[in-house]
Write a structure and sequence with these properties.
The protein has 261 residues and is of the alpha+beta class. It has eight helices and ten strands. The longest helix is centred in the last third of the chain and has 29 residues.
């Protein structure tokens, strides 16, 4: 690990500074690992007397190679830094995301090394991936969830927020009977710009593998957008078919390049 380059803590959490610093020094040795892959996500508890303990999620980004590390250190914000800035922007726009706490960066020989984004733990009680990718059901509440998901997505697009990997794994959901609360995660891959109809349709095609669910989302979105429902859904389903075809082609290409042994 290199030397500390930046530790930025949002104002409401300044009193937790020593605990946040310890998370940066040893993120894997504290809390519970939730996901271990290219990036490592863990959950930990911060605080104690006199501070009220809070649950936080720590996302440790993969250490970049030296070229990318130099680029991040000199010319572009790190993924951790972007995640925090984007979270603050989303909250200003009224779009749900777990409350950002801090970002921490380490540098070595002029290159970015370890970087971490820390946010409040947000408890989700609906598995959106199970519902939308594996065609699960919430019974009579399924229609309400799809309609409200369309509204949540429409709010993002109207606010000029484009998530480049907008899929159920990056949307957390909490239910209150017929009402569903949504928050957006994996925030380093956001763009902020006006979106036309093609941009909006591209932002919907990763949401589900069910054409029935996609059609329901499309109808609710078109009503909010004020466009012809039939035309919008036809364009959405055509875009979804192209997306699936491209994904299959890329999968075949990858299997040829890296055949299984």
């Amino acid at each position: 690990m290199g030397h500390l380059r930046r530790m930025q803590i949002r104002e409401p959490y300044r009193s937790y500074g020593s605990g946040i610093g310890e998370l940066g020094q040893c993120p894997g040795g504290q809390g519970v690992t939730l996901h271990a892959g290219r990036n490592v996500i863990s959950m930990a508890t911060l605080g104690g007397p006199p501070d009220e303990p809070i649950e936080v999620v720590v996302k440790a980004f993969r250490v970049p190679d030296r070229l990318r590390g130099f680029f991040y250190a000199r010319f572009r914000p790190s993924k951790a830094r972007r995640s925090m800035v984007h979270a603050e922007t989303l909250l200003e726009l009224g779009i749900g995301t777990p409350d950002p706490v801090a970002c921490i960066e380490f540098e070595q020989a002029g290159c970015l090394r370890e970087s971490y984004y820390i946010c409040r733990h947000w408890v989700s009680d609906v598995d959106l991936t199970e519902l939308l990718y594996r065609r699960g059901s919430l019974g009579e509440r399924t229609g309400a969830l799809l309609e409200q998901l369309a509204r949540f997505t429409f709010l993002q697009h109207e606010s000029g927020v484009q998530h480049l990997d907008y899929n159920p794994g990056n949307i957390l959901v909490r239910s209150r009977g017929e009402i569903f609360d949504f928050v957006l995660v994996d925030l380093n891959r956001l763009r902020f710009r006006p979106m036309d109809m093609d941009d909006r349709i591209c932002g919907l095609v990763r949401l589900t593998t069910s054409t029935d669910y996609l059609r329901s989302i499309g109808k609710a979105y078109a009503d909010l957008y004020g466009v012809d429902t039939g035309d919008f859904c036809r364009r959405l389903e055509a875009a979804y078919r192209r997306f699936v075809a491209r994904r299959r082609t890329m999968s075949r290409i990858k299997s040829l390049i890296r055949p299984e042994h």
